[in-house]
Amino acid sequence: MREKNLVSKSNELINTRYNLNLQEQKLILTLASMVQPDDSEFKSYNFKVKEFMDLLEIKDKSTYKNLDKVIKSLMEKTFVIKKDSGEYIRLAWLSSAKYFKGNVTLEFSANLKPYLLMLKENYTSYKLENILKLKSCYSVRLFEILKSNLYKKILIIDIETLKYLLQADKKTYNLYGKFKEKILLKAQIELKEKTDIYFEFEEIKTGRKVTSLKFIIKSNKENKKLLSDNLKDISVENAETIEDKNIIILKELFHNQVSIKNLKKILESANNDIEKIKKIYEYSKTQKIDNLIGFMIKMVKDSNFEEPIKKDKDYKKIHNFTEREDYDYKKLEEGLLGWDNDEILESIEENKTIANEGSKMDFKGYENKNDINILNDVKNVLEGQLTAIFGELRYKTWIKPSVDNIYLENNKIKFRFSNEFVKNKFESEFENIALEIIKCIDNNFEIEKYII
Fold this sequence. Notes:
The chain is α+β, with helices and mostly antiparallel strands and 452 residues long.
């Protein structure tokens, strides 16, 4: 057994509740470190009792004599994993134990294979030495949970869930103050001193009560001993698997609107080419698509996809037009309408040619030609200024189709959207600026939105 052996566990196992004391955890993790990356079956893992006790720094002779009791207790303990399907699986840690002349032979339960063997994704690896000198079973568990989230750098978890995972939900730790003092602060010191990660945490309150914690997880670069020879460790640091990282990237790219199952399909179809997925997703925004997932899967499979060449247009910007609350509306109005700059007028005229040929305005509902002229002015000013503020790509992607289809009714500029997602995007990022621009044309105008 070597301190620098790697422990590899599936994140599903790490995030499962089980009741092991400190010695039992160290025994299981020491055995896990003896599993080789290419093992397809569990082997019988042999070690000398003295070697094991030295490794775990066990000096109590009574523990030596009662090692059989420790292993017997461990063999009797089970835990439950809940699958996404709703199925519950009860598992045991060990299937057998043998003793002979100062040697012990242990074997993992075969049902643990999916969680310790042939791990390809969604797992975490770390050096065994990280946990050997920890003095608290809670510190060991918290280390694993935080280590599995190191790639995200931040973990937000409600306190009751954390207590549940740590098996610390007893009456002893019912009060947050006691939980913080005896578990969190102690683990914070231990991990900083003895492991290759450390953490800071912030308390999140509901009313006056602390209900959640925000962990900021960092690599412990000061702990040179554990970080030495760390290339091997980093190469398999998974929850830092490539797929896990890419799933996080894609969740952000699609604004959490696509299920993980579909994200994995897209990722698999693209052979994990995250840049290609990004380019095709940007391209999808310029197209009228009924089934985004199907479109993405089909396009990422196409090895001949080429990113369309972007046209450069030099839109003239109004000086100092930034998103803030204290506009000089008189000057802004002059700027928006082009009264203070002939180049602005030229830019607006140029923007009139940038129209969606598929979206023609029906003017039958308007009472007179003046209403049509006003509406055209609104469209032209919006297009010119929103392009200048947000850039041509963002304007064409998120705003242009709706601006092309606006109409005026009872002092309401009505925006029409193809779906709820685009409408929400407009409301969260563009609506306030668009409203300020519209009110510079006529302060009585308001914005109204609906989905077609």
